[in-house]
Amino acid sequence: MMDARCNQVYNALFDCESGEVTRLCQDRALSIEDLFTELAETPAYREKKIVFAGDGARLCFDRLQGRLEARLAPELLRYQKASNVAFCGLKKGGKWTAVNSVGADAGVSKAAAGYQRAEQTERSESTMIALGADHGGYRLKEAVKAYLEEKGIPYKDFGTDSEESVNYGPYAYRVAQSIVSGECEKGVLCCGTGIGISIAANKVKGIRAAVCTNEFCAEMTRRHNDANILAMGGRVIDEKTAVKLADIFLNTPFEGGRHLERIQQIAAIENGEKL
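-> structure tokens emitted (275 positions)
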């Protein structure tokens, strides 16, 4: 998508499946609201992971944040580049081709290497998990961190780094901001009960933080509420339970359907609209 000014974007929709790209519509100019309506109300799109790319991607992402389940493409893949053209040319033959390290060939080789790095970055950023806790939730955070390391899931730890007493607000804010910015996909926050830190995180527009103490809640808050932050209490559950809840939370999809309308109503409340 490209910024067309006046709250419009030039755009087209593509479906990417198993490395194959299929055009779904012709290039067109739409208002951001019309694009939102199409993506939110077309059944075929509700089950898809929506990724915004192009110089208008950030504009759409910011305008639709909290109203549409979407994310930004990583910066290395977000904008049109000559290296992308080189990648398509190289891949047309079905395999990467070794080239000489001189002249134009060297440039194409560097482009290919750059695109491969971008692909790796995209895979990493698409599953990046944000972690945060105060002193009361520090041990739970560390247990979840060990689980992520064991599973090879990338994460960013926003602290705290010890059981020394701290306020939970800054950690809730940092984790929440990393999610709404597209830097991370989901988050795990822990304090003494999970309540205070979740209240703080939910003050950030677009965040749906849910306190969970059992497996059923961890599953249903993803299936029905599309929660993007799991909150837990270090004085309520033990570390083994915290890891189990995190595993369920991170691996349970949002069901969409009738639940999407409810999520949109939450966003409407955030935007000061009357229901």
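The CA atoms of residues 83 and 111 lie 5 Å apart.
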